[in-house]
């Protein structure tokens, strides 16, 4: 192999590929980045067997070739290169990398051990979304996915494309987040995507911008950002019928300033530190919501926030972290909380005033905690 690349493009390509390189791998080749030079471009690939990253950049090629280099080492070297063209020369077992006056000799790995990456089929159906809208949807929903690997189905986000819209849903059995948005180019299908992989795709969408193309296939989903691609395996199993969990009515509706409620919640929840599963109780009455928490070892705290309340007053207790997550997910100045009673799930939604633009189609359902 012998090639010459622009430093910025090469650094971006290595950074993109190494996002899937893990610190602990069972197969040594998984810690490497595969570089393949040919037909005027350099293709960088990496995978952890669950998520695969690929990117192609234009380069000047004198000799085509294929090498597998340690990913973390390569990323650290490239990040500190001077502002000068990068030259790669060598064979599979030893590669010389030069940039300006700096020269490095890196031992290659066995390229034959690198697992093949299953890219999307050419005729696979694809849909397109604005990258910023996609990233926002993922940030709102993926937070509700479980981190318990003992229940793998709940560690995923159910993505469903139908009728020109895409819907994402996640739950850890204590909370449920559902968000829909319109496709620019629509497809039909569904996939249970690992939340970690989806969050990585959302991070890429934020970095690259523009639009993201989503390709749903049997067993995998791919996210394309121009010349960059992330492909992830899907989770096997059936996601819960979350629509059956969504209440079709409520007795009490509360509209409150999101920032004020979040700040009060964070202050009151301080007394819960050091004692697991300490809830914060919210009491809705007389034009305000009062937050209270008690810790037998540390004391108690209470604070009231003004609120617009329609319906009967009531008290309900929540895990403060889960409630704060729902408030953060809405993203609007004001949030609407829909309640039936103190023992049934509450629903948080972004609140839209008549003079405001349309809000996100987000539903955040939260199970209450029982207070003795």
Task: Sum this structure up briefly.
The chain has 372 residues and is of the alpha+beta class. The protein is built from six helices and 25 strands.
Could you explain how this protein is built, in words?
- The chain has 372 residues and is α+β, with helices and mostly antiparallel strands.
- It has three domains: 2-113, DNA Polymerase III, Chain A, domain 2; 126-243, Roll (DNA Polymerase III, Chain A, domain 2), CATH 3.10.150; 246-366, DNA Polymerase III, Chain A, domain 2, CATH 3.10.150.10.
- It has six helices and 25 strands.
- It has helices at residues 7-17, 71-79, 131-141, 195-208, 258-268, 320-330, and strands spanning 2-5, 32-38, 41-47, 51-58, 60-63, 65-70, 86-91, 94-99, 102-107, 126-130, 156-162, 165-171, 175-182, 189-194, 211-217, 220-225, 228-233, 252-257, 280-285, 288-295, 299-310, 314-318, 334-339, 346-350, 361-366.
- The strands form three sheets. It has a twelve-stranded antiparallel beta sheet with strand order 14-11-12-13-25-24-23-18-21-20-19-22.
- It is elongated.
- The termini are far apart.
